[in-house]
Amino acid sequence: MNTRSTPALQPEGATIPATSPAILITGATGTIGTELTRILSEKGVSFRVMVRSARDAQKFDTLAGAEVVTGDFNDTATIAQALAGIDRAFLLTNSSEQAESQQLNFVTEAQRAGVEHIVKLSQFAADLASPVRFLRYHAVVEQAIQLSGMAFTFLRPNLFMQGLLGFRASIADQGKFFAAVGDARVSAIDIRDIAAVAAAALTGSGHAGKIYTLTGPEALTHPEMADKLATALGRSVTFIDVPPAAMRDALIQFDFPIWQADGLIEDYAHYSRNEASVVTTDVQDATGSAPRDFSAFAHDYAPGFLIPSVDH
C-alpha cells in the first residue's frame, strides 16, 4: 500500500501533482471506480480511496499512488476523516434506497472539510421532476452541491454498455437477452470513457461548473446491439422485447432488491420512449478523445458473454 502525507490544498484549476493525495475517490471498488483509480495511477497522480473494509483495502495494496482509508457513507465521522486535507472528491455510491441520504451526508461533510471541487457521478437526464427515481435522487444531490458553494462537475452518463454483462448468462446459455425497451434507440456509453472524463475533471482545469452528458458515438436499438454482440462473439445473439412486468419478475429472480428492480423498470420505460437517444460530444470535449463505440466494447468484453454468471 502506498501512503502519502496530505499536503496543502491546490488552487482551483491546477493539475494535482503526483506527490499530493488531495483527491478522494469514493466507489473505488466498483467498475467505474476501479477504472478511474487505474487511470490516475498510470498518470502518476496520488489519490485517497474510501473503502468500507480492510478486505476492500487489499485491492489497492499494489496500486501506485493509492492511500486507503476505511469509511462508511452512513457514518459521518468516518466521512469527515476520509475528507481531511482533500481538495477534490469523486462522489459515487451504490445504487440503493439509501443513496440520496448517503450522498447528501457526503456533501455536507465535504463542505465542512473545505473541499473545493466535487465531481459527482450522476445520470443522464437527472431532473427533480422525473418519473424515474434514480434521476430524481441524483438531481436532489446535484442541487445540494450547487447550493453548497463548492465547485462541481456533474457527469451524467447514459446506459452503461457494461450493463449488458448482466445478461451474460442468458446470452451464453440461450444466445438471447431480454428487456422492456422495444426498438427505442439508446446512446449507451462505455464505463471506461466515463472514468476517463472523471479523471480529467479531477486532475485538470476547465471542468468546474460543467455538466457533462456522456454518451457513446451512436444511438442503437437493442436488436442492433445484439447484432454487434453476435459479430464479436461469432455466434447468434437475439434480443427479445418483453413486457415491463416480466422484466421486473426476472430482476427479482436474480436477487435485485425490489426498490432497485422498480427503479430499473422506470429507467427502461424512459429508454423505451426514445428519451435517451441523443448523442453528445461531451466525452471528446472533456478528454480530447472520442468515446468507444459499441463494436469496440463488444470485442473487448466478448469473453465475458461466453461464460454464464457464476451466481446464477
Automatic annotation (TrEMBL):
Domain NmrA-like: 22-258
Name of one Pfam family that matches: NmrA
InterPro entries: Ergot_Alk_Oxidoreductase, NAD(P)-bd_dom_sf, NmrA-like
Family annotation (SUPFAM superfamilies): NAD(P)-binding Rossmann-fold domains (SSF51735)
Species the sequence originates in: Spirosoma endbachense
Gene3D superfamilies xrefs: NAD(P)-binding Rossmann-like Domain, UDP-galactose 4-epimerase, domain 1
Lineage of origin: Bacteria, Pseudomonadati, Bacteroidota, Cytophagia, Cytophagales
Residues that span the membrane, as ranges: none
Protein name according to UniProt: NAD(P)H-binding protein
